[in-house]
UniProtKB/TrEMBL annotation:
Keywords: ATP-binding, Kinase, Membrane, Nucleotide-binding, Phosphoprotein, Transferase, Transmembrane, Transmembrane helix, Two-component regulatory system. This is histidine kinase. It catalyses: ATP + protein L-histidine = ADP + protein N-phospho-L-histidine. Its EC number is 2.7.13.3. InterPro entries: DUF7134, HATPase_C_sf, HATPase_dom, Sensor_HK_TwoCompSys, Sig_transdc_His_kin_sub3_dim/P. One of its GO terms (molecular function) is kinase activity. It is an enzyme of class 2 (transferase). Residues 308-405 form the Histidine kinase/HSP90-like ATPase domain. The chain crosses the membrane at residues 74-91, 97-114, 121-138, 144-161. Gene3D superfamilies: 1.20.5.1930, Histidine kinase-like ATPase, C-terminal domain.
Length: 405
């Protein structure tokens, strides 16, 4: 971007936060363009009332026009001031000026767009009555069509301002509603996370409490009879081993089928080995078969993470690519990057598709658990997760897993 364009953007941003300066510049431009035309017209038509530049008339026109500087802050006062100035010029037998007429219309518009219905209706009525009386009282005979057309112009300017105010209020309400929905969605996500944790805690408590109680009883019995009945003691030890294996299997099943326990096909996968980063090539091949172009980069010296981090990183990539397939569009591309350091593993998944404001995973009757699941899975191993729109379009997921416990 050139320095000139950057300067223009900076100046525009400066004016946006200073509307009064903008209005002053508009009023000065109107006065600069309209006042010479006003004098030229009056000097060339041979009018006996005003043929030469008049200082008082010029000052009145300038005061009426520059009053637009305060049109957004005091619209009703500015409108009344302009009407008073126009009346003062009419009393001194000065003809209507182009800047004065334009300033009057802008003031009517400002009252309609910057004030509520009561004040804008009152200001519009005062302006309409003044304009109608001015037209009727002008020297010379004006046809009915001219009077109706000019009055319709004033009414149309007021209606335009009123419609713009209602439109702004409508969009402000939409933004406010979107903010409320965003807060409600965050609350729902927290509630889902708390409910999930509570359910896991109850299930783990039931599994651990039951099996540990059985193991404690069997261990106590084996200790008492080991000297006089070695066979029964060995049988008790076998029972302890079996119960311990069952407890571990149950706990793995609870964690492994988290949020997928309603899947009818999960029963056949529960006993299968958990996938890891070593299975990433197979996952990417499967994704490419759907039509999504995926590229993989691995940087740094690859290290073997802990089994939990290995599974968590694989599931994170799987979930992110699934959301890319759902939301990014058929022409999107995706990139998967793995960065290994001595202390941690960073996983990045990005796409250049349409993107979404919030990642949603449709899990039955509980949409939105995909995002919650990502945060929970990364936080479980002390990692950090960032999810959001990508610079230049698309969406990105970035997670850092510590390689040491």
């Amino acid at each position: 971007m050139s320095p000139r364009i950057r300067g223009l953007h900076a100046f525009r941003a400066w004016l946006q936060v200073r509307p009064q300066v903008t209005d002053a510049l508009i009023a000065a431009g109107l006065l600069l363009v309209g006042l010479p035309q006003h004098y030229l017209q009056d000097a060339s038509d041979g009018s006996p009332r005003f043929t030469d530049p008049d200082l008082v008339n010029g000052l009145l026109v300038a005061a009426v026009t520059m009053a637009l500087t305060f049109r957004q802050r005091y619209p009703v006062t500015v409108l009344l001031f302009i009407i008073a100035g126009e009346i003062a010029m009419a009393v001194r037998d000065y003809p209507p000026s182009i800047p004065g007429v334009v300033a009057f219309l802008v003031a009517v518009y400002s009252v309609a767009v910057h004030r509520g219905l009561a004040h804008s209706a009152l200001g519009g009525m005062v302006a309409f009555v003044y304009f109608f009386v001015t037209l009727v009282a002008m020297p010379g005979h004006l046809s009915l069509i001219v009077i109706v057309t000019n009055c319709a112009l004033v009414a149309g300017v007021w209606v335009l301002g009123r419609n713009l105010r209602l439109r702004r209020a409508y969009f402000a309400e939409l933004e406010h509603r979107a903010a409320r929905l965003e807060r409600a969605r965050g609350t729902d996500a927290r509630a889902a996370r708390i409910e999930e944790r509570s359910r896991i805690a109850r299930e783990l408590h039931d599994v651990v409490a039951h099996h540990v109680s059985v193991m404690t009883v069997q261990a106590g019995a084996a200790r008492r009879i080991i000297d006089r009945d070695a066979g029964s003691a060995r049988e008790a030890m076998s029972t302890i081993e079996e119960v311990g294996r069952t407890a571990l299997s149950e706990m793995r099943r609870i964690v492994g089928v988290l949020r997928t326990d309603r899947d009818a096909e999960s029963a056949g996968r529960e006993l299968a080995p958990q996938p890891g980063l070593g299975d990433l090539g197979e996952l990417l091949d499967h994704v490419r078969e759907t039509g999504l172009a995926v590229q993989l980069w691995i940087e740094g010296e690859a290290r073997t993470p802990s089994p939990g981090v290995d599974v968590a990183a694989f599931r994170l990539i799987q979930e992110a690519l699934t959301n890319t397939l759902k939301h990014a569009g058929s022409q999107a591309r995706a990139w998967v990057r793995l960065y290994y350091t001595d202390a941690d593993l960073t996983v990045e998944i990005e796409d250049d598709g349409r993107g979404t404001a919030t990642i949603m995973a449709d899990n039955g009757d509980n949409p939105g658990h995909g995002l919650v699941g990502m945060y929970e899975r990364v936080a479980l191993y002390g990692g950090e997760l960032r999810i959001g729109p990508r610079v230049g379009g698309g969406f990105g997921v970035r997670a850092r897993f510590p390689l040491e416990a």
